[in-house]
């Protein structure tokens, strides 16, 4: 049994590994190395505490996970035994998203389709609430093989993410700076937004004013507002920033920049009811693309990162578990609305 303890201790040098993960992976490595075979009895909880120095709670939690994964079984009054040496069971992935909107759904569908049936995916939503985010991370830490997380901008985010083993975590969509070597697939918001506005400059100038709908304290990245303010100042564009679109308030001669799809649908309905021609009497630019924006009202001009590409690369990370640090390009798709 001494070799089993050595397998557990070997994992101490891996950054970000919790003691719980060391214990579970140490036993799995011992089985894969044939140090342990089916029917072998595992050390008691007290022996594990003495040999590893781990807390009782950690040992019990580790044994519980091995039982749930069907690798060991507990026999009343006799202890724990190896019941299954097939450790190649489905990898468990925790996917933490901010909400299940159309964009996150696009990512999820592509991600899931590339991984099932070999990978088990559990999905969690934090809804841009830091307490919910912290609760989710606390609850999933140490229970999954891979963690794919959409973070939220908050001073506590980096500290919360440190609860996860960084070499097993992939940050997606939004990037939050933190210490340590971790993988990410993110968007870039400020410079890409600015360049999109510049590319549309000649068309924007055909309208009297540019209106940007942005609610205070919303989940909209602040970098987009910075890009918008810089653009209208650099090119002397008359503009307004409004909290939200009010039904019936669409005006001809304006170009609208809308990041909220619910407000976009309201404006499109008003344009249709009032017989307003998109691209001529009113211009519309929407952030984030999805299939319906390609066909509705003759097509809505959008700019967006490629979430299908992000999903493909995220799936590759899960399968290969090789470090990746990449910003997914932003693409402008010009259509009838602008």
From TrEMBL:
This is Regulatory protein, gntR family. It holds the Pfam family Peripla_BP_3. Residues 17-85 form the HTH gntR-type domain. Keywords: DNA-binding, Transcription, Transcription regulation. Signal peptide: none annotated. SMART domains: HTH_GNTR. The keyword S-adenosyl-L-methionine does not apply. It comes from the Bacteria. InterPro entries: LacI/GalR-like_sensor, Peripla_BP_I, Tscrpt_reg_HTH_GntR, WH-like_DNA-bd_sf, WH_DNA-bd_sf. The keyword Transcription applies. Gene3D superfamilies: 3.40.50.2300, Winged helix-like DNA-binding domain superfamily/Winged helix DNA-binding domain. PROSITE patterns: HTH_GNTR (PS50949). One of its GO terms (molecular function) is DNA-binding transcription factor activity.
């Amino acid at each position: 049994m001494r070799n089993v303890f050595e397998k557990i201790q070997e994992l101490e040098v891996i950054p970000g590994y919790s003691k719980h993960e060391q214990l579970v992976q140490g036993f799995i490595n011992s089985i894969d190395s044939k140090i342990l075979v089916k029917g072998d009895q595992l050390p008691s909880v007290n022996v594990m505490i003495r040999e590893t120095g781990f807390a009782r709670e950690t040992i019990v939690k580790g044994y519980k996970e091995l039982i749930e994964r069907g690798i060991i079984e507990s026999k009343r009054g006799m202890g724990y035994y190896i019941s299954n040496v097939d450790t190649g069971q489905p990898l468990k992935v925790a996917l933490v998203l901010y909400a299940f909107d159309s964009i996150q759904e696009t990512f999820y569908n592509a991600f899931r389709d590339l991984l099932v049936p070999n990978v088990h995916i559990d999905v969690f939503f934090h809804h841009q609430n830091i307490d919910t985010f912290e609760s989710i991370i606390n609850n999933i830490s140490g229970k999954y093989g891979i963690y794919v997380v959409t973070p939220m901008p908050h001073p506590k985010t980096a500290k919360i993410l440190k609860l996860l083993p960084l070499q097993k975590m992939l940050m997606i969509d939004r990037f939050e700076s933190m210490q340590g070597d971790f993988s990410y697939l993110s968007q870039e918001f400020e410079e890409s937004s600015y360049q999109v506005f510049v590319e549309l400059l000649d068309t924007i100038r055909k309208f009297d004013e540019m209106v940007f709908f942005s609610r205070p304290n919303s989940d909209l990245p602040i970098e987009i507002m910075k890009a918008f303010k810089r653009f209208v100042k650099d090119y002397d564009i008359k503009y307004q920033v409004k909290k939200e679109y009010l039904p019936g308030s669409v005006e001809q001669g304006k170009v609208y920049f809308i990041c909220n799809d619910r407000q976009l649908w309201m404006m499109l309905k008003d344009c249709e009811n009032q017989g307003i021609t998109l691209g001529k009497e009113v211009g519309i630019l929407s952030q984030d693309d999805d299939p319906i924006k390609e066909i509705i009202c003759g097509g809505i001009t959008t700019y967006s990162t490629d979430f299908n590409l992000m999903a493909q690369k995220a799936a590759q990370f899960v399968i290969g578990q090789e470090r990746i640090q990449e910003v997914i390009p932003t693409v402008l798709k010009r259509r009838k609305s602008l």
